[in-house]
Every structure is written in C-alpha cells, then in structure tokens.
Amino acid sequence: MIYSMENETYRVSVKSVGAELCSFYDKKAEHEYIWEGNPAYWTGTSPLLFPIVGRLRDDIYHLRGKEYTLAKHGFAKKMEFSLEAKSDDEMVFLLRDTEETRMSFPYAFELRVRYAFVKDGFVMEFSVKNVNDETMYFSLGAHPAFAIDLGDKVVLDEAQTLDAFKLDENFLRGQVTQPVFANSRELVITPELFEKDALIFDGVTARGASVIRQNGKNVHVAFDAPCLGIWAKPAAPYVCIEPWHGIDDTWDAGHDFTKKERIEVLGAGETWVFPVTITAMNG
Q: Which of these, 114, 201, 220, 252, is most buried using a 10 Å CB contact count?
C-alpha cells in the first residue's frame, strides 16, 4: 500500500513495503524529484538498508558462537511495515522483529521510519530501538534515488579529497581504490561513471550533497554519516545519494559481527536516531 501526506506545495508518498519513499512531488511546479522506478534499469526508489549495509563476505557473520546468513543490504527493504501514526504533515512506519528475522538477525528491535515536512521539503528519520537486555550490533543506510539527466551533477557541501572503493567480482571492497574527489566537490554524471558499480566512500566529513540539474530542479540531501554511496545503473536517468552508517565488507574481512567495520553498537533499551533531510532548491 502507498500512503501520502501533503501540504500546499509538496506531496510525499511512501510504500508500506520497506517504508520506501516513492515520491517527492512539487505540486506547484508539477515536478517529481524521486526516480519512479523502471525495470529496464532498476525498480527501487529508496530502499532501506538494515541490519547491514552492502554485502558480507560469504554472506555470513558470526555472533555469540553461531553463524548467520544475511543477503546484501539486509531484509528491511522487503518487509511490510505497519503505519503507526499519520497526520497531514507526518507519517511513522514501524517494523518489529519476527521469528523470520531472528533466524538471520537474532535481536528484538523496533525499527521506525518517520516522514515529516520541514521548510522546502521533508525529513526521513530512521530510529532503531534495542528491545533486548544485551548490546545490539547493526548497520543502517538510506538509498534515495533522484531523477536526473546525464550531464547533471552531484555536489558535496564541502570540498574533500576522497577515493572510492572499487568492488570486486563478489561485490566486496577490493584492494584497489580510485581517485574521485581531489579537494573538490563536483561530480558530473556521465554514461561511464558507474560502469564498475557504486562509488563508495569512507571518512566523509561533508554533511550533505546536492543534485544539481541542468533544468534547475535541484535537490539537497542533508545527513550526518561517515560513509556515502553514489550509484546508478550505467547511463540510467537517476542517481542515488546514499548516506550510510555501515559499509560493505572487504575481500578479506573476518566474520565477527562485533568487529565489523562501521558497525553501530546500541545498549540494552537504547534508541539510535538517524535523520536524512531532503529539500528542494528552486529559489
């Protein structure tokens, strides 16, 4: 099911499966910012990555003396969320652990995704509550896709020097990196940019990035996350801006989940919150 909220200017729509954002529509300009999905390229629009980001080596991890299997990006993106609350300017979606999720992720949790209007856009706020009497380990990432034309740009909020990790044939971080940002901010989207899959960065200090379009329908994504993915299928008319608290395993990573790179550690009964704010930039 798709749920929507709207004000005088914007409408935001979200699928109950995965609590996945599927529309950010400017009613006055009659413009859609979000990629609407196309099987010719990719059917996703903004999948939620939980309880891992990227891929585990061998798709397995070890925890408390047991081995578990988790597919790339985890299970939340495929699960039905309940609508916990809804008003004209806010929607909250909830996913609790199930017998099925505990087979691959042995924790009790409450995962909420809150959408609420802010000036010129909305916040997409993820929260994880640890409903256990022990420490919980997890990762979470956002993955919104924005409609673009080739030749549009992704522009970081500040100049950085960042190399992207190259993924190997198993979609793990290999030993080779490629220079992308050299004390710079701008990345032009070309047909060749994503020929070798996503550009994955660790150690990001910029607190946001913009999609700057030739048609002037620009959008900004504000976040506070150490990792960032920028991705699309080659030559596709969209780009994903993906702030992550988590990252793919390296080709030689160990399987101890408690030592996984960029893993989040949440104490018993605690709640972790990660807001991502998306705003239009048309003025």
A: 201
